[in-house]
């Protein structure tokens, strides 16, 4: 399969308590600038014309079909993921065979790029999100997902160890990239858990030949099963720009996208 059959939805976050300037807003905004000619601010609104990617990096931009900044809010994240996956599920038969939901979040105490292996069905926010929501020991997924209990683990379908090796060696990032098994329990984990579950749901209903529109979003009609791509979800924690500069972080995201495309193209 050619790598033109692998596309990406890139997401980041706006500010939250203690992090007024979220680097993922800037990173996602750079891709949005290449897609639309407009940057996005911390609220996901269009700003001035900008495309900060180098000419080499622009080669990857056409494979990013959407670049969206989420409000750091559990409610907003659920709504946006439902909307995005609903739109992907309506893709035509000429669309990509694989779509990767690549979520970026900041570890404001981090020193490295952390590729997250898994997420947990555990919403235990240490601080309120931007809507003032602060759950403790609650499930991310609703009760209808009976096979995933509180605290249960969901893992990405991508080979994260292979991605780390590719980025450390060929990508030139060495010890600055690591695989993590703990995305925290704040909105980053909430996003990853919900995204992994929705991707798994789409893939399982597609494979068994039964797709119900309300499994994803009540506003979506039932698509032709042959048109629905295989979905994957991955979360990347980035450090602050003070630790790893903006240009280096953009380079990392681009090389991660290239490594994922290479991996899925071999499927």
TrEMBL record:
One of its GO terms (biological process) is proteolysis. Coiled coil: none annotated. GO terms for molecular function: cysteine-type peptidase activity. Pfam families: Peptidase_C15. Keywords: Hydrolase, Protease, Thiol protease. Belongs to the peptidase C15 family. This is Pyroglutamyl-peptidase I.
């Amino acid at each position: 399969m050619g790598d033109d059959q692998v596309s990406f939805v890139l997401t980041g976050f706006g500010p939250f308590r203690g992090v007024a300037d979220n680097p993922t807003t800037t990173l996602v905004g750079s891709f949005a600038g290449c897609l639309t000619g407009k940057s996005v601010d911390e609220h996901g609104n269009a700003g001035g014309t900008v495309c900060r990617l180098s000419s080499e990096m622009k080669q990857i931009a056409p494979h990013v079909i959407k670049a969206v900044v989420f409000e750091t809010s559990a409610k907003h994240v659920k709504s946006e993921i439902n909307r995005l996956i609903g739109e992907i599920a309506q893709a035509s038969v000429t669309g990509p065979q694989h779509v990767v939901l690549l979520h970026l979040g900041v570890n404001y105490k981090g020193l490295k790029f952390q590729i997250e292996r898994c997420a947990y069905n555990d919403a235990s926010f240490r601080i309120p999100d931007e809507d003032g929501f602060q759950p403790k020991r609650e499930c991310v997924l609703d009760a209808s997902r009976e096979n995933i209990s509180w605290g249960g683990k969901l893992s990405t379908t991508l080979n994260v160890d292979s991605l780390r090796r590719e980025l450390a060696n060929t990508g030139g990032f060495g010890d600055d990239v690591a695989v993590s098994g703990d995305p925290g329990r704040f909105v980053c984990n909430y996003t990853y858990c919900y995204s992994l579950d929705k991707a798994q749901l789409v893939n399982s209903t597609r494979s068994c030949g039964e797709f119900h529109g309300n499994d994803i979003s009540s506003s979506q009609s039932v698509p032709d099963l042959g048109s629905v791509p295989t979905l994957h979800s991955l979360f990347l924690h980035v450090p602050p720009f003070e630790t790893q500069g903006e240009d280096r972080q953009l380079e990392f995201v681009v090389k991660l996208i290239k490594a994922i495309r290479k991996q899925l193209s071999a499927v």
